[in-house]
Every structure is written in C-alpha cells, then in structure tokens.
C-alpha cells in the first residue's frame, strides 16, 4: 500500500492523476494543475482529512490473481442470473442468510462484503461486526456462499495487500 | 486485418454488453420485490457496463481515452457494490421485509 498520510505523498499522487487525466501539457495548464492539486492538499489538511484511511491499494500479482478469479465468478453468476431472468417460469427462491466473515482487518471485511455484492445473486444487506446479512436470489447462490470459498480467498488475498 | 479483428471484437463486446443491460432491465421489471431486483441491477453494472467499457477501450486503442475508461471501470467496481449495499441496508433499516421462498430451510 502507498501511504498517503504525508501531505507531499498525497500531492504527488494527485498530480500524477491530474497529469494522466488532462492530456494537455502546456506551461499554463501545467501551472494550473499544480496550483489546483496544491489547493486540494491544503484544503484536505485544513479539514483534517489526511488520516489513516488515505491508502492506495497497490496492484500486486497475488491481488491481481484474486481479481481475475472474481471476474470469472462474476461472469458465471451473471449468466446464471440472466438465464433465470429470461426463463418464463422465473425460477428464483430468494432468501436472507447470515454468514460469518473470518477476515482479520477492516479492509479485508470490506473486500469480502463488496465481493459478495459484486457477484450477481448475492447482496450484502448489513454488516454487524463479523456477521454479514446477505440476500441471496436462489438456494444455489446461498449454498455457494455458505460453502465459504469466497471467504477463504479474500482471507488469503488480505495477507497480500 | 488486425484493425478489422479488433473492430469486430469490440462490436461483439458492445452488443453483448447491451444485451446484458437489456436483460438486467427486464429482470428489474420481472423480479417480485426490492431485494431481488437488486440482483438484476447487479447484472447491469458488472457485466453489462463492463463489456461496454471494454468494447470502447478496444475502440480507443492505446490512448489517454483508454486510460480514462479504465479509471471509470475501476471506480465502478468499487462504487457499484457500495451503492447497492447502501440501498439494501436502507431498505432493511426502514423495515422492508423480503419476499422469501420456503424460509424454513434458509
């Protein structure tokens, strides 16, 4: 992770993003970009917003592998949900279930909760400590989630952040 | 030749994405309650929008446009589930009960 707690790091990051997004590299516009990013850092510092939560999760090979696996799961789940939407009998069996998150850190739990929601067929409704209330579209998606593969994989990728 | 191949692939992605967006919209209409409709919305903002963006990236080629599209994709992956979760939790907090199928084994 890149730590953005230091104002200079935050400025460097913001200016890099500005350069990437602008695409105009004339002296006038560069100066304006410089000034505006400095202003943002100044305002953020004054509002005391520069704190622990300012982190950028770097893309490391292990993390990237998780994203690719999740993308595959998302595609599979999408096709399943679309099949159910277009089926005239509408074969769904919605239910609320509770699952336990075994991740150690808050970032890990957020990743788990967001991954559940990102995969069609399951939506994280509420989070109380390490218990998630999840709405599942069908019995199969509920059973899949209770199987705990996603939980294990997030726990695994959590060590690599 | 390669240009044409990329063009065809990009159009497949764009049309496929459009198909998923349409299916998601049909799902929103057909599903019985608020919670199950969220799953249909999920289809739109993952594979639907994802495929459209990927198709547009192929059209953009190796330019700044593609970088921006990648950023849009990146933000969507994080803001989409957060927004869906916020909606779902708001519904639960305000006391909306889900339609449940045979709840005794759930």
Describe this structure in words.
By secondary structure, chain A is an alpha+beta fold. Chain A folds into 2 domains: 2-55, no CATH class; 58-158, no CATH class. Chain A has helices spanning 7-22, 27-46, 61-86, 106-118, 139-147, 149-158; strands at 2-3, 55-56, 95-100, 122-128, 131-136. In chain A, strands 3-5-4 form a 3-stranded antiparallel beta sheet. A two-stranded antiparallel ribbon of chain A has the order 1-2. In chain A, α1 (7-22) runs antiparallel to α2 (27-46) and α4 packs across α6. The relative contact order of chain A is 0.13. The model of chain A has no long low-confidence stretch (mean pLDDT 86). Chain B has 106 residues and is mainly alpha-helical. Chain B has one domain (2-92). In chain B, 81% of the residues lie in helices and 0% in strands. Chain B has helices at 2-30, 34-60, 64-93. The radius of gyration of chain B is 18 Å and the shape is elongated. Chain A binds chain B through residues 20-21, 23, 74-75, 78, 81-82, 85-86, 90, 92-97, 113-115, 117-126, 133, 135, 137, 139, 142, and chain B through 20, 23-24, 26-27, 30-33, 35-36, 38-40, 42-43, 46-47, 64, 67-68, 71, 77-78, 80-82, 84-85, 88-89, 91-93, 98-103, 105-106.
